[in-house]
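Q: Structure tokens for this one, please.
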Amino acid sequence: MVKKNKFIRFGKPHLGKDEIKSINNVLKNSWIGTGTECLNFENQFKKYKKSRYALSLNSCTAGLHISLISLGLKEGDEVITTSLTFCSTINSILLAGGKPVLVDIRPDTLNLNEELIEKSITKKTKFILPVHFAGMPCDMTKILKIAKKYNLYVVEDCAHAIESKYKNVNTGTFGDTGCFSFYANKNLTTGEGGMLITNSKKVYDNCKILRLHGMSKDAWKRFGDKKTKKIDYNYYDVKKIGYKYNMTDIMASMGIVQLKKINYMWKKRKQIYDFYQNELKHLPLKFQKNNKYKIKHGYHLFIMIINNNISRENLLNYLNKKGIGATVHYNDLTEFTAYKNIFRKKVNIPISKYVCKNIISLPIYPDLKKTEMRYITNTLKFFFKKNA
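A: Here is the predicted structure, written as tokens:
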């Protein structure tokens, strides 16, 4: 039974003694910046994702930004992306000097509708930026076919899709780069943080320099080399105008432990996801559906779409008053103040606009108790019975 006055948070990281111990070890070593723990995390993450290179960062947004720059995006170049995503996807394009071109979503997967991409391609189009929404992989076969036909780069936004696979292949390995988020509510967390993966050494080397002020050497590499046993001081060069996008060893030490738990946490999320779907299937709700191709869902979000005749505001307020931290992923991008001038021309995204008005996300995280899950679904059933 759920305790009275207890609020069920929307997101909660699965942390324990191992993370504390790992962080304490870093603190005892007194090197807390970018160092060997980041390198270890990168090595383990690229092994997990079966990628040649991995670069630890302070966010997924940073990964998207330097991916676009490293791959040669120029001022005014167009980047095709989904109309259902977080603002960071759009911001990364704008900050790199590009122009975001929104394409509507599929009504089933809620991902970028690959059948509409070609209609949006112009002479200025240089990139496709698919987002694996909620952990559901996009149809990468069709996206890559279009990219090859028009000689476009592909940058995958995998913020929701750490564990996800499309046709038994890891998300993030299809595109020129794949970018992951380790924010506090993500399936693997380092508090803040992210990772960029790629199979291109050229892209990796470029992004690595851009990650830290454009410098040729990180601070921890200036004081000798353990492999060659040289102890001479190494001067650094500033090769590019770079950014402050590096991860720290404190964050990486947490990520290493989290990565060891990734399959356990995924299984717990799947159990919650399946429970919700089974309990709520008879309500007037729609859920994200696979488009018949073989996938592994990341189960980052559990989303449901309500009918137009039900007020989402009333439902959200009701759930929150009942101590359930339901929220929205995502609002209509074209309605945000910062983007109104950018999308001042009418954007044809009817499915996305409908979903953005009617979508709700329920709490889903490994430590969510069965009694809490049951309380959430019973509360929803009561609301819909009352408002039938």
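A few notes: The longest helix spans residues 262-280. The chain has two domains: 17-261, 263-386.
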